[in-house]
Prior knowledge:
Blueprint (H helix, E strand, L loop, with lengths): L1 E9 L7 E6 L21 E2 L2 H12 L7 E6 L8 H14 L4 E5 L9 H7 L4 E4 L20 E4 L2
Parallel strand pairs: 2-4, 4-5, 5-6
Antiparallel strand pairs: 1-2, 1-3, 6-7
Helix pairs in contact: 1-2, 2-3
Amino acid sequence: MNYSKYYPIDVLNGEGTRCVLFVSGCIHNCRGCYNQSTLSLDAGNLFTEQLADQIIKDLNDTRIKKQGLTLSGGDPLHPANVGEVLKLVKRVKAECLNKDIWLWSGYQLAELSAQQQAIIGLVDVFIDGKFEQDLADKNLKWRGSSNQIVHRFE
C-alpha cells in the first residue's frame, strides 16, 4: 500500500485533534474530487512498518491529547489497501487506549466485501459514498455531498 500524506496533528478531518493518513488508490474517479493526487495506487510513498509504528507512537503521545486516527485518501477500502489498513486498525485498537478511528470511502456500507466489512467492524465513524459534485454542499459536516452518509458505530 502507498500513502500520499500523513499528518501527526490535524483538526480538520474528524472530531478533535487527530492523526490523519491519506492512502493512495481509488477506483471511483469522482468528478470534482478534491484529492486527485491520491487516485493512483502508485502515488506517494510506500507504507512501511516504521510509519505504522510512528502512527501508534503519535496516537499515544501524551503531550498532545489526540482523539484518534482518520483514514482517507484515495480510498482506504480499495481492494489493494484493505490488508494493510486492516492490520493498522487492529494495531490501533490493541495498542492505543480510548482512540477512535474515522474512515472515509467511496464504497457504500451495503456493498462492502467481507474483508472491507472486517475493517468497518473496527472503526467508530464511517463516511460512505462517492462524492457527487451535483450534490455538493459546503455546509455539510464531515462530508462533501448530500448522498454521503455518516455512520457512527460508537
